[in-house]
Structures are given as C-alpha cells and as structure tokens.
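About this split. The held-out portion is used to measure sequence recovery: a designer receives only the structure tokens and must propose an amino acid at every position. Recovery is the fraction of positions where the proposal matches the reference. Here is one held-out target exactly as it appears in the evaluation file.
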C-alpha cells in the first residue's frame, strides 16, 4: 500500500508551518522552541513516509545545517531561534536539497537585507513599510524569512 498522498500532505503541512514561522519571525523577530519542535516532528514524519531510505540523508542534512547555524550563533551572527530552525529545514529538504537551499538562502538573505536596509526609501505608509522600518531601526534581522523561503522552494515531495 502506497502512502504517497499522505507523504505529500505532510510535506505540505510542513511547508505551511514553515511559512507561519517565517511570518511570525517577521512580525516579532522571534522563533519559539515550540515551533521548531513541531516543525521537526512534521519533517521527520514526512521523511519516514517518503521511505526509510530517505530518513538518514534527511536527518544528516538537518544536523549539518544545525551545526552551521549553531556555529553562526556562537559567533554572534545569528539568533538562537534561527540556528535551531536550520535542523527541521534540513530534515524537510534532505541531502539532495542542500545546494539549492544554500543558493536561494544566499540570494534571499541578500535581497531581504537590502529591503530592510533601504526601507526608509520605500513609498507609502502601510503596515508592511512601517514594519520594515521598525526592523531596520531595531538593528535586528528576521533571518527566518529567507530561511523559510529557501526551505519552501527546496522541500522534497
């Protein structure tokens, strides 16, 4: 009996939850441990349903990304929630998604940083522009947003 439909449904749930985490990070500049744990569980279920041969490469990808995130956290270049979020994203994208994830993360981070940095130049006074200006004034950066985008675009169905 094939569970391909269930696997796709769980991956879609993980993607939806990752988008929620990214949005919440944009609004609050925080990623909670609870959200990371829930996403990790969903991603692990997706990898198991994708086939037992996929579990190890997906977990190894998660561990590699977590190690990189933890290193950046130790150096002060990344928040703790962002560092922890790398693990479930790695489990979600798997080993084969790492290269694409890295490229998209680099581009999305650069573009996001530019938007935040020059938010004072944006026209309008809507809530999005105001939030970008608040983020710029805080000196912080919602790294969960580009991480979420790169994770969504590399999720393995």
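Reference sequence for scoring:
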């Amino acid at each position: 009996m094939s569970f391909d439909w269930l696997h796709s449904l769980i991956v879609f749930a993980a993607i939806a939850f990752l988008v929620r985490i990214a949005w919440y990070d944009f609004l609050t500049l925080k990623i909670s441990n609870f959200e990371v744990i829930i996403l990790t569980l969903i991603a692990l279920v997706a990898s198991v349903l994708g086939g037992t041969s996929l579990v190890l490469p997906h977990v190894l990808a998660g561990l590699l990304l977590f190690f990189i995130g933890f290193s950046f956290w130790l150096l002060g270049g990344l928040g703790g929630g962002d560092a922890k979020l790398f693990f479930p994203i790695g489990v979600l994208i798997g080993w084969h998604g790492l290269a694409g994830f890295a490229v998209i993360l680099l581009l999305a981070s650069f573009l996001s940083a530019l938007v935040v940095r020059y938010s004072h130049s944006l026209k309008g006074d809507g809530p999005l522009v105001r939030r970008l200006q608040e983020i710029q004034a805080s000196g912080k950066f919602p790294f969960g947003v580009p991480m979420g985008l790169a994770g969504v675009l590399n999720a393995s169905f």
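Annotator remark: The first helix runs from residue 4 to 28.
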